[in-house]
Amino acid sequence: MEMSDRSLVLVLGNDLNRDAAKTSHHLCSALGRLGMGAIARDSRLIRWAADAVAHESPERADAYETMVVAKWNKFIFDYGFDVVISLDLNWLFSSRLFLDADKVKQIHSFWFGDMGTHLQAAPMFSTAPHTVLDLINHSKVSHHAFGRGQTSELALLGVQRIGTTALAAPAEFLEADEPCSEYGKLAFQGDPGLGVSPTPQALAALERGDGMATLRRMAGQEILDALPAGELTLSWIRQCPTVTDLLAAAVALRLAQPQTAAVQLLEETRATYPAAWDFLQRNHLVIEAAMLVKAINRYDRLAMVKRLSRRGWLDVFGASEQWKPFGIEARPVMTIPQMAAHYRRYPAHLNLPHFWRDGAADEQLFEIAACGRLSLNLDGPELRLSYDADQIALAPSDESFEAAAEEIVRDPSAAFAAGEKARRRTADKHLWEHRLGKVLA
Amino acid sequence: MKPAASPQGVLVMSNDLLTPFAKTSDYLAAALERRGIPAYVRDNAEGRLLTYLFSDVMAPKAPQAQQAIRDSLRDLIEFTGIDTILSLDLNWYVTPELFVHDTAIQSIHSLWFDDFRSWCTSPMNPCFPVEGDVFQQHIKHPKVTHHFYGNSQALEARLLGFTHQRITRLAAPRHLIQDETACTRTDKLAFIGNPGFRGKPSPEAVKMMEAGAEIADLRTFSRNAALRNPDVRSIEWYKQEPTFRNLLAVALEARRRFPYEPALQILQMAGTHYPRAFEFVNEKGIALDVAFLIKLVNRYDRPAFVHRLWKRGWIDVYSAADEWEPYGITALPYINFHDLPGHYRMYAAHLNAPNAIRDATANEKLFEIAASGRLSINLDSPDVRSCYDPGEIMLVDSLAGLEAATEQVLRDPDAALASGEKARHRSAREHLWDHRVASMFGE
Question: Nearest CB to A56: which of B57, B73, B78?
């Protein structure tokens, strides 16, 4: 695929999600620095309207879509866009757009979430007679996964033209020079990352300060116990009873290898439980099954946040009502423009991605590094691909996690030095410009 | 009025149904970003389309639709710390109270692009209905500042009771200053745009153009046509207030003689001769409609300019082919925004004739051609003169003057290019969106 001398890129976001809004903005800035024009727009309202019209006045849905498509086609034509970029499938809200526009030569999906979650959260106009897969496998479309697990999942779903490129940081963060003012503490920004209400047993375990290994075993048991109770999983078991055995085996593997991609672990069970694997694949259920396996790590974040909070070493920023049940008083979330200064104010940050990210390097890893600050992470092979051990802190266990935090609290000078190294590495390799350069080359 | 303090974050509300609005919204956002102010452009077209298409069927759903729009923008405001809203015209006004009563929003800025009458009557701009004078209260709220690009527009707004207003000229995007595409067309000028006034021209007017009528003759023709063939509404007004016809006749004649005076000012002046008719206009709330009729005296200015050079084979016309066809002009295809800088640079000089509805103010193209380092030939008007000197642009006040100026440009394109360079320097110093943004926020 050839790029014109000065491409004009349409970046489509979805303001439903803070990270999508933020990353769309960073992508535009990076494209500008690469010498390309970039214009950002949002698809949230169109999606809401598509859904509302489909429910309230289905006979007019087609007319509404026609008007929306006409507006967008004029917009594309008047601006002369030749490339469309979005997180996930935010570019796909109507099957009649972009793919048929001759001027648009390339469409790039930067995968951020997973496809199932995206399609549930982002309704669109009907794709009939096409399937979503038909549309996203169009020859113009490329998919960019940020981790190995995500790449495998997309491939299993039948998605074509997938590349794997790590997430990145905005170059603006390299300029941040706010002094450190919160010595003696680390910071964490995010929600508890649980997705479901914790069981009383899990809450008690968290209160007791049980380690991650214990909590993962507990989560594994909870998942297996819930299989016959869930409407969806019960139907799997009824159709193919050995699914329970396959999932039990995958859970056991995950407990032994907590940072290995869930899909990879499921595939390892294939030889032992071929009928169950066949059933899952035939019914496009592998991704759902993988999500269950990933959820074994669902208490990781909480366990570490609780452990450091109990020692008085952590400031938590997030939705206070979500943290309250865990006895943590969270401060308000920083706005996007405040993020770089916020990272700079602390000598180090706790970085614990959502469990569904399957141990891949998340955006915060790169952002903290770009700001010249140390991130404290759970050790995993994907993180080691992006940074060396003297640039970020990688802790394989609860004890080492706590020990690393204690060292930072006692003497932050090593953390500052590591953060500076991480900043240089980011400037050399991990900016959005680098990722876009690889993708658009 | 003092400039507003520097914002923490700006939401630029666009309406992508009207791509010139969208383009300018994006230019404004880019200028804000260069000042280190995070700016986010969001489109309201889908919300307006929904209101327009489904006002009957979707009426019960209106509260949820408004809530969806509010939620969508409220989340963005919260994520990004936006405290300022900016839009062309009233594109920020989609649902009532969206920003006006939001405590996170410190100021709202309407940069007027169109006129108020057109904005309110355009089918592209429906918004959720409000009762009583809520709309007026909102647009006159102390948080809201209205920026007008010309004296005439500011006058119209004052008449409507807009209290917080400033004059802020239009401008050019900075990327035009950096384009170095070579000039390859010195044998022709270019005109990029439509005939200005939508609606078929009178065949008689076109015949006059063919016969070489001067611009003053065409204005006389338009004046006479307005009086001889009044539209349905005017006939009704004549019936209701017999002296209204006299008022209109005086105003049309004044406009013919003083073609660049603001239409409203002319109407007020005519009102001193026919106070009863003027009172009638005010009581009926039709001042802007009457001003529109007065502006139409100039409706053939732009087509006549283009037509005269077309006839001589001295101009390439781009875009709106179907609108140019009744004038006997074959237009070249539309140029998208991405290719616009290259087209400005390709020609040594451009014709720039403002839309009659804009009352001879300095239009966006004046600044864009200048920023591209190219000469523009314009109708001589006080607003245009206040932005550039005669050594930077060319000013003419007749079709004969236009022909002479064009002939000079075609004979000596180097001189045209030198003037264009001067205009580019002036634009870089004074007339970029960056300057407008700076004057709005803190400098």
Answer: B57
Strand order in the sheet with B144-148: B39-43, B10-14, B84-88, B107-111, B144-148, B165-167
| Interchain pair A25, B40: CB under 8 A | yes
Residue B319 has φ and ψ, to the nearest 5°, of 80, 165
**With an 8 Å Cβ cutoff, is A39 touching chain B?**
yes
Q: Among B72, B334, B339, whose Cβ lies nearest the Cβ of A44?
A: B72
Could you tell me the end-to-end alpha-carbon distance of chain A, in angstroms, rounded to an integer? Answer: 8
- Chains A, B: CB contacts within 8 A come to 124
Query: Alpha-carbon distance B314 to B377, whole Å?
Result: 13
* A335 CB within 8 Å of a chain B CB: yes
B239-260 per-position pLDDT tens digit: 999 999 999 999 999 999 999 8
Question: Which pLDDT belongs to residue A331?
Answer: 96
With a threshold of 0.90, tell me whether the complex ipTM lies above it: no
**Bridge partners of A375?**
A349
Confidence band of B72 (pLDDT split at 50, 70, 90):
confident
CA distance A148 to chain B (A): 30
User: Which residues of chain A lie closer than 8 angstroms to B13, CB-CB?
Assistant: none
Q: What pLDDT, on the 0 to 100 scale, is given for residue B58?
A: 65
Strand A186-189, strand A8-13: pairing: unpaired
A310 at B interface, C-beta within 8 A: no
Predicted confidence (pLDDT) per residue in B382-393, tens digit:
889 999 999 999
Lookup: tokens for A146: 């940020």
Among the listed residues B382, B377, B374, the one whose alpha carbon sits nearest the alpha carbon of residue B177: B374
| C-beta atoms of B49 and A67 within 8 A | yes
Say whether residue A56 is in contact with chain B using an 8 A CB cutoff: yes
State how far the Cα of B328 lies from the Cα of B210, in Å rounded to an integer: 9
Confidence of residue A3 (pLDDT cuts 50, 70, 90): very low
B50 contacts on A by Cβ (under 8 Å): 49, 52-53, 64
Alpha-carbon gap, residue A410 to A343, rounded angstroms: 19
In A295-332, which ranges are continuous DSSP H helix?
300-310, 320-323
Which of these, B5, B24, B1, B198, lies nearest to B111 by C-alpha position?
Answer: B24
**What is the rounded average pLDDT for all residues in chain A?**
92
With contact defined as beta carbons under 8 Å apart, do B258 and B295 qualify?
no
